[in-house]
What we know:
13 helices; 3 domains
Amino acid sequence: MGEAPKRSTRAGHGDDSIYWDKSKNRYIGAVSLGYTPAGKRHRPKVSGKTKAEVREKLRGLRKQLAEGGKAPANYTVAQAVTDWLAQGLKGREVTSVDTYRSLADNHIIPQLGKGKLRDLEADDLDEWLEAEARVLATQSLKMVHSVLRRSISHAQRRGRAVRNVAELVEVPDGQAGRPSKSLSLKQGEAVLGAKQGTWIHAYVVLSLLVGVRPEEARPLTWSHVHLSRSGKEKPHVDVWRSVRRHGDTKTRRSRRSLAMPQQTVAVMRAHKRRERAECVAAGEEWTEDRLVFPTDAGELRSALNVRRNFRSLLKEAGFGNPKEWTPRELRTSFVSVLSDHGIPIEVISRLVGHNGSGTTEQVYRKQLRPVISEGAEAMDEIFGDEAAAKNQSGEQG
């Protein structure tokens, strides 16, 4: 049997103490260094699974303190976080960096930023996390904690911190995250009829009736949209690229070719005619490498831009709460509508790129792959040829 956890007696000034923390299920070692200018006890801490591990860490901590390895006296938490955002995220996706910066600006720097990093204690972080848990979802809370932990690690590697106090605290449960929603059939019909003749209408039709991800739709080019029947293949869209850093899809199984329902084909043909006419009017050369849903300047749209236009469409469609919806829920609606229609989950998984069905679906993105047509056939049955004709006449009008 292992050593029974026992709490040590209180350590005197300058002494080390080791005790068992039941809430963390670990031994905690602390060095007592007196009091901070604010009157709080200054006790750098380390943790480990065994007393031997903690003793070793305490010796290392003592050595660092003796060698003057403490953080600079005026180095703040805000500086540590800012330095990590500027220097520690090279090569990361822009969207990821923006997310980390937003979390830091809204949840770390306002509450902890002015404090000196060398004086930051586990008790301070416990109080901070408990307060944040009242307003953040659990996953967001974990991300905020991760930003702070990685910022302090970055400071340690540069001799600006001795220990990483963020590693000593447990992240509490936050609020329940916003549940994903799906459009009802009636809502779907309203959405498909709103803002006809605009790019956002075409975007919504493609997303809802074909099931592509937002990060796959935004960088889509016309070279991957096949609007004419080729041999035995129906009109289809090749989902092979995304806005991820290397331009690849989420997983290899995400690389797929999806047949388009008749309504989608009609809308996309009209959208392409408009895009080509605008290109010619501007005196530019049309190429199939142009984006399907570009900005007015011909550039890639941001997720925020798409979200704003999508909510404007929802408002026109009669939604009283458009801000409660996101473009990603067009994809969840695609899954729900097909499932309600009786399409097997294995087929839906293939359509949305969650699971492959054979060796032919394991090839690289530049290779042709079979066009998956079950979703298009189902959507034609669900929304009907009448809806497709209505949209086509609306696009031509």
